[in-house]
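for the writeup, i need someone to sanity check this before i put it in the appendix. the sequnce is what the collaborator sent (i think, or maybe the updated version? ugh). structure was predicted straight from it, no edits. if anything looks off just tell me and ill rerun, i have time this weekend
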Amino acid sequence: MTIRVLLADDQALIRGGFRVLIESDPAFVIVGEATNGKEAVELARSTRADVVVMDVRMPVMDGLEATRAICADDDLAGVKVLVVTTFETDDYLLEALRAGASGFVGKGVETEELLGAIRTVAVGDSLLSPRATRSLITNFLAQPAGRPVATPAELEVLTRREREVVSLVAQGLSNDDIAERLFVSPLTAKTHVNRAMIKLDARDRAQLVVVAYQSGLVSADPPG
């Protein structure tokens, strides 16, 4: 299956570098390049890309607003957004997740890591490493309005096992990690994650992290 990729970055040099990396694998094809968020939204609609590799800081419309527009459009339900960011310093992780982004990579990413990230989000999973999760939690807890207050009623639809699984997802664990922790198969772990996403109307695993911390389902203390 060929994965259709749209690049969105206002710097031609970075777009060119990503194009070279991505086109080094015949499984990918670049279907368009946007220089700002507005163009990214328009091209997402016209090209029907599978994945938009989205920069955050762009003119006219930034990457967060563009991500929000793409993910809120029912006609673009199959389009996933992979945000390009710097894990340790970017203040936009939480907002990107709220906007619907499915994952994050750094601009200094290695070729195989970038291609793996695009593949991951293209099939409907999210790319949220423990490193990114720690940054997300730190930023989230730094916002007074973002601190969890109470478990919302909608979490009552989750079984005890599903709540446990969501809490592990919020720690950045993969399906394999969760399976090992709970002594179940990776397929069973994935099934629990998928059911939780359906019940909570979460677009992907990344949004489960937001739900987990906003609701107080998991500890508000950042991991050490």
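Confidence is low (pLDDT under 50) at residues 146-150. The first strand starts at residue 3 and ends at 8.
thx in advance!!
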